Amino acid sequence: VDFMKPHHEEEKEFGKISKKGWRLIIVYAIVAIIAHINNHPAIGNLVIFLGLFMVTHRLILYKVINTWQNRTWPAFQRAYTKFLHWNLAKPYRPVVIVLASFVLAIMLFAARQPKVVFFPQGDPNNVFVYVKLPVGTDPIYTNQVMRKVEQKVDSVIGKDNPVVESIITNVTIGVTDPQDQDQNAYPNRGKIAINFVRFGLRNGESTAKYLNALQNMKWNIAGADISANQEQAGPPTSKPINIEIRGDKLEDLISNANNLKRFLDEQKIEGVMELKKDIEDNKPEIVFDIDRERANREGIMTGQIAMEIRGAVFGAEATKFRDADDEYPVQLRYKYDQRIDIETIKNLKITFRDMNMGGMLRSIPLSSVCDIRYAQTYGGIKRKNFKRVITLASDVKQGFNANEVVAKVQRVAALYNPVGNVEVAFTGEQEEQKETGSFLLGALGISFGLMLLILVMQFNAFGKPIIIMTEIFFSIIGVILGTAIFKMDMSIVMTGVGIIALGGIAVRNGILLVEFAEMERARGVSLWEATVEAGRTRMTPVILTATAAILGLIPL
């Protein structure tokens, strides 16, 4: 771009807009207007930005840049050169400074005690309220309960809240965690999704207070298990608190799961939202006990009885309705008020051909060959590595560190003695966190090894690569200091990836310095002067590359 070229002989033109500049501004304005008229605002805004940048550069930026390049930055370089001379005069000085910086960083880090997290969590963009009623609850009643929950949510969020974009309620369908693999339909469950506007439109208001209020709310809705949580950052993982009870006998597993849950709940550990089992051990069912002797005397098979019951309750396909495009099955079954009445089902007539009486058609009531009773059963049995397993899981309340809360739960759970041949183990997010940490440590070692190998091949020596690789150690001092000073959380994933990326930046800058010093040595300059000149001359590109890398990583 013409106005960005150096103008050593035309400095007098800066500080004012020339005729050529006014012509360009007029052209930019016409192009921007045409773009906006033709519904291309992005192009129009880009042209406006270029015009404003040109005007700003002519009137303001040139003077600022000229002052920086000719006065401020050379002053920094002179001060840095003096610092290099002072360090090289006595080589032990930089060693002492680095070691002192490392000790100071460790002490400050230990004093701050930053929290370690798997993935960093910010203010929630979405808050989900999950409602679970007893298994077998009619979806109509579930919807009525969700209405009550909506009123309580509105009392926390408020009407026409500017930071809330939408509140959506689901019943039966889409009621599980979006990150959960289980996306089945459950008539006894509901979910309220509170979606906030994007961060830039919140005017500095934190959405964490709404999550805290919902997590600590007394819902006072009988039979409803209600919890609130925010969206999960990063890839899908299990709950922070995830306790697996493994064994072979289901009765022992259920007994230990109930006892362990009761034991942990009694301790009232801070930060634990609510421990929940992943098994339904009280699913209601209606059992038809067939009197096989009576059925055999009547000449009825158990399959006939089952098909009659199924046809009455769920329906049997009577025919199919066809149109020009598709066909639809026509189901024949009892009316709704009849199929939900157990007495009507008991009086169901079973029609069959009695071969003992010469094939005569007969009808007998269902109650004459069946006894009906109410019972409870299990909703489902999960297995892991060929062993039955029940999981106790819980989220961590907003404002609490997951690792600290899990450590407290582990200390308390160690006091519990399981009954029977049962194994209790902590898995979930903690297990994945350890695996990720081990993987990143391995990746860090491999990356450093590859960098060292490439440097040895490039310089055909071992001393210079070692000098360059030591810069990685110096850069880690900055990571420790930055984490401690700004009271940042240590994210296993993001910090690990950042250290690996930082190692590449430090090695690249080291290569620039060493290669320039080697070029100076080849010209006959002494080692002292070559080192000082390398530091002074390569200071600008080193800082530019480091700054560009930092700015590029900020959005992450």
Summed up, what is this model?
With 556 residues, the chain is of the alpha+beta class. The protein is 51% helix and 18% strand. It folds into five domains: 2-70; 90-116 and 434-553, Up-down Bundle (Multidrug efflux transporter AcrB transmembrane fold), CATH 1.20.1640.10; 122-232, Alpha-Beta Plaits (2-Layer Sandwich), CATH 3.30.70.1430; 241-277 and 394-424, no CATH class; 283-377, Multidrug efflux transporter AcrB TolC docking domain, DN and DC subdomains, CATH 3.30.2090.
Could you explain how this protein is built, in words?
- Helix 3 runs parallel beside helix 13 (463-485).
- Strand 14 and strand 15 form a beta hairpin.
- The chain is an alpha+beta fold and 556 residues long.
- The mean pLDDT is 84.
- The two termini are 31 Å apart.
- It has helices at residues 19-37, 41-89, 92-112, 139-157, 208-215, 250-267, 292-298, 302-313, 336-339, 342-346, 402-413, 429-459, 463-485, 492-522, 527-537, 539-553; strands at residues 116-117, 126-132, 164-171, 189-196, 225-230, 241-247, 276-277, 283-290, 316-322, 327-332, 349-354, 360-365, 370-377, 382-384, 387-394, 422-426, 490-491.
- The protein has five domains: 2-70; 90-116 and 434-553, Up-down Bundle (Multidrug efflux transporter AcrB transmembrane fold), CATH 1.20.1640.10; 122-232, Alpha-Beta Plaits; 241-277 and 394-424, no CATH class; 283-377, 2-Layer Sandwich (Multidrug efflux transporter AcrB TolC docking domain, DN and DC subdomains).
